[in-house]
């Protein structure tokens, strides 16, 4: 599980960099690209959280971080569904929604890097 967690951290740090920069190859990221990155991050964190919570060998620290992740995952999921629905219908999500999702996704990536 350690190698998987390291790989996830590397992937999440890369995704966080892309999220912060908002650019891919010098071009502004599209809303669909943003949704894809957020969903990929969400899914990776959901899988990691579930794996820790069901593993009887998980440490107390791992369990505490997984429980924190679960709270954030529960908060961000409905927002991600709204964002994806708006984008799929050709609309433009509000800055408030984008900001709220970004804040929660940053919390998730922070937790993935050691619970900070």
Characterise this structure.
The protein is mainly α. It has one domain (2-22, 29-112). It has 4 helices and 2 strands, in the order H-E-E-H-H-H. The chain has helices spanning 2-21, 31-54, 60-88, 95-112; strands spanning 23-24, 27-28. The chain has a two-stranded antiparallel ribbon with strand order 1-2. Strand 1 (23-24) and strand 2 form a beta hairpin. Helix 2 runs antiparallel to helix 3 (60-88), helix 2 packs parallel to helix 4 and helix 3 (60-88) packs antiparallel against helix 4 (95-112). The chain is elongated, with a radius of gyration of 15 Å. The two termini are 20 Å apart.
Structure summary:
78% of the residues lie in helices and 3% in strands. The protein is mainly alpha-helical. A hairpin with a 2-residue loop joins strand 1 and strand 2 (27-28).
Tally of contiguous helical segments: 4
- Mean of the pLDDT scores? 85
The neighbouring-strand order within the major sheet is 1-2
* Percent of sequence in beta strands: under 5%
Dominant shape: elongated
List low-confidence stretches. Answer: none
The total domain count is: 1
Class by alpha and beta content: mainly alpha
């Amino acid at each position: 599980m350690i190698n998987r967690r390291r790989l996830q951290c590397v992937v999440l740090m890369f995704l966080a960099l892309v999220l912060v920069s908002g650019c891919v190859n010098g071009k502004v990221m599209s809303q669909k690209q943003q949704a894809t990155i957020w969903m990929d991050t969400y899914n990776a964190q959901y899988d990691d959280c579930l794996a820790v919570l069901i593993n009887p060998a998980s440490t107390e620290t791992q369990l505490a971080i997984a429980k924190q992740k679960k709270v954030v995952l529960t908060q961000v999921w409905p927002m991600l569904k709204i964002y994806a629905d708006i984008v799929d219908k050709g609309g433009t999500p509000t800055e408030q929604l984008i900001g709220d999702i970004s804040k929660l996704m940053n919390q998730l990536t922070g937790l993935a890097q050691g619970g900070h």
